[in-house]
From TrEMBL:
Residue ranges annotated for the PA14 domain, each copy included: 456-626
PROSITE patterns per record: PA14
Family matches, as Pfam families: Fn3-like, Glyco_hydro_3, Glyco_hydro_3_C, PA14
GO MF term list: alpha-L-arabinofuranosidase activity; xylan 1,4-beta-xylosidase activity
Claim: Transferase is one of the keywords in the record: no
Database matches in SMART domains: Fn3_like, PA14
GO BP annotations listed: arabinan catabolic process; xylan catabolic process
Family: Belongs to the glycosyl hydrolase 3 family.
Protein name: Beta-glucosidase
Keywords for the protein's UniProt record, in alphabetical order: Hydrolase, Signal
Region described as Disordered: 554-574
Species this chain originates from: Terriglobus roseus
Amino acid sequence: MRRLIAALVFTTVLSAKAQQPAYQNPSLSPEQRAADLMGRMTLEEKAAQMVNGAAAIPRLNVPAYDYWNEALHGVARSGYATMFPQAIGMAATWDAPLLKNIGDVISTEARAKNNEALRRNNHDIYFGLTFWSPNINIFRDPRWGRGQETYGEDPHLTAQLGVNFVEGLQGTNPKYYKVIATPKHFAVHSGPEESRHRFDVQPSPHDLWDTYLPQFRAAIVDAKADSIMCAYNRIDGEPACGSKMLLVEILRKDWKFQGFVTSDCGAIDDFYRSYGHKTDPDAEHADKTALLAGTDTNCGGTYKKLDAAVKAGLIKESDIDVSLRRLFEARIRLGLFDPPSMVPYAQIPFSAVNSPANEAVAKRAAEESMVLLKNDGILPLRAGKYKTVAVIGPNGAALSSLEGNYNGQPHDPVMPVDALRTSLSGSRVLYAPGAPYVAGFAMPVSRTMLHPAKGSQEHGLKAEYFTSASFSGSPVITRVDPELNFDWSGVSPLRTAPNGPFAVRWSGTISAPAAGTYEFLVKTGRCRGCGPAQGYTVTVDGKQVTELKRQAPVAPGGRINGTTGLPEVDRPNRPGAFQITFDDAKQEHSITIEFSRDSASAGSGIRLEWSPKPETLLPEAIATAKQADLVIAMLGLSPDLEGEEMPVKLPGFVGGDRSDINLPASQDELLKQIVATGKPTIVVLLNGSALAVNFADEHANAVLEAWYPGEAGARAIADTLTGKNNPSGRLPVTFYKAESDLPAFDDYSMKNRTYRYFTGAPLYGFGYGLSYTRFAYSGLKLSTAKLKAGEPLTAEVTVKNTGKVAGEEVAQLYLLPPADGNGGLSPKQQLEGFQRVSLKPGEAKKITFTLSPRQLSEVDAQGIRAVQPGSYSIAIGGGQPKDARATTTAQTAAFTIDGTQELPH
């Protein structure tokens, strides 16, 4: 009987296996499984899989999947996450191993979020495992608003950081990707934002292969990224997402890419829309162009008409199958069709998000990103030397300038003024915003205008948090919130009920720095599918002045602190706007703001804004400065001014880009007035791109570049100013003195651009940065003084800490090609190696660089890369070999190359 039962069980198991579709069989290859699944699908089902929001196919047990997920400097738009410095800040670390560590942390949190989402049957956008990062376009011009998303202006630095970030994201498991990385935007893409949907770039073959493609090659060939995103613009007349040169000849043939290509969002629409390239007559022809060029999935909806293109005879169903196979192979390699028990990454718990270990990596990254540009000896600040310190400037308490763009939400972020107050505990720390970022631009109402009760000297409003949207019951949290400036996109402020409804009541008084009638605005930002889920009411002096009962759904991807950037007069009758008249600066009006939301997934956050004129804020700031013994001016830019295709039109800013690289006039005047008080002044810059801060360089005692530094940025700034962190960041971009130093923004020729080709004198050079100690280089030796083409070259040098405190040096190796070689096309110098070296006082270390033939090669006028004969030099030091500001003397050595060796694309 037992044998009979066993035989029946065995037969049943065999029968079940025989009935199991091949695509569900983990023992088969991804290619076999993808082919089997496609063979079971209808044409219409295939077309529905070719857009970023791929539909579920219930009859085949295929779940919905959205390819659009963001992880530029932390998992974005899907709740709380560890938030690292913006990409340009990560680049300033010059720390490739750290970038791999950051990528690993991000992918761990991504898996934790995806695992939790799947447990809840959540297949929404931003909870998937295909991440549209990193942005490895070359930051060729500081006016580009999205330059903050890149690793700077140099191909080698960008390539090395990008490779490590991609490897950290994708993991090391031989069978499964941890997540899939998507380097973007392929290729030759860096503004202007206003014309990105229609401009045509025609780079010279030299510039294309010397500057615009090397980092993409490294990400695909070396790091083996399994996805890549094509760009909006045309290149040599063809839209990038329809470019056979880029996607077929270079990507597939030259680089042997086996992964999938995704379009930028709406890029295929640009093929035929009136605002775009207009290279195709309609959506069906655009689908044909993009698909046959090799764009596999469309962010947008144009590919939903692929079935119509087949029926019209424009393409074959087999053409769709080529791309669809790549897409399903990717999902299979992520383990999305296998039992979770088989996928090691599927075991990562949700508790891995925001872990103390991850927060420590964010803190380290923020510290290493700090670049000290000037110091007359005032830094580090000595404890107790300054009894009163004034923190002045719009970035002193600005949440958005910690975040940058494409960001996740950090838990309880600390503002710079608060971090300084903690670090300078022996000093009285005053605060005043001092100026708007730029005249006519909205900014959060300053904490100095808010008080929890009449006559109180404390800044902020009394806040009561409830676990219901109806304010029922007793508040679970009562505290004073310094500002109403909260980014709760997809998250809740209540950790005890993170997914449920909540409400907040803020109450207290509001005043103004000068008499007058001012308009205020409550902004709840944008949120995906908000519907009626969130609302607010505002009461001033017992009278309701504005409310929001419903919020219509809008497109995903918005941010709480987004703004139109238009002057107030151009935005009449806006929802959430109200006015208050102040008879004098001491008058206080009572104010109550009640905000409620049905769930964490249903809304964004809240901000109380106004648009003061510079002359309204300036007197208070100067009065504050005069009370102090030291001024820390927190100046710079905002991701609400510079970023992706933004409706901003203000002096110096247009469409997300800048038309002026100077510090905005309102802040420049503020700084001049502060300096005129005679008080020692330290300037801290928070921004995503280079600023021409000539006045600060000439008159401030110190200048610190902090970028958009992430969740630990405020503490990193404070620790750097007080000496707990010895600054070791280096500039990944050139800081020019004036816009007149630059070619036209829309000129993509590299002539006179970046440190490699710039012939003028910069304000601060690429690779520059100061320390609180000093370093010296000695004993440079090359493996040979005569090299045959195709052989590697090794260089070793000793670096010593000659100062009195421990520090980290960034040793930089530059190759100096023959000035008259290669038809004069080669850069005057090019970074080909860098290493971080940690040294105690008096300690010395020998470091070694090995240069491959590719690193020793040059690109000719036809775009051919080859090792070329001639006399070369190597320079190793703490910056560029001829940087007038360098505090170290670079070691140099000459060598010659005999013969020629052409290298493959």
